[in-house]
Write a structure and sequence with these properties.
Layout lengths: L1 H22 L2 H20 L2 H37 L1
Helix pairs in contact: 1-2, 1-3, 2-3
Length: 85
């Protein structure tokens, strides 16, 4: 069961890293790096509770990137509409 959870966490971190790279969000890239270190430690110690904390942190980062992307898209749309007037 632990290793299934670990694989799920790894995939979340991979998603965060991919989004951070795509968005060129260096803070999120650094955050992903820190979470990878925590993940490796949790994996070594087979610490399911640590994986839960990492999952929570990764989801928060992903949600923040999603919110930033939506805000950025809305800003671009407003800018585009302003030019059309």
């Amino acid at each position: 069961m632990f290793y299934d959870h670990a694989e799920s966490t790894r995939r979340l971190i991979e998603e965060l890293g991919g989004r951070a790279f795509r968005d060129l969000n260096y803070d999120a890239m650094q955050g992903a790096g820190v979470l990878i270190e925590a993940y490796l430690l949790a994996l070594d110690q087979e610490d399911d509770t640590a994986l839960d904390r990492i999952d929570t942190d990764v989801r928060a980062w992903i949600e923040g990137l999603t919110d930033e992307a939506q805000a950025s898209a809305a800003d671009r749309q407003l800018t585009k509409e302003g030019r059309e007037d």
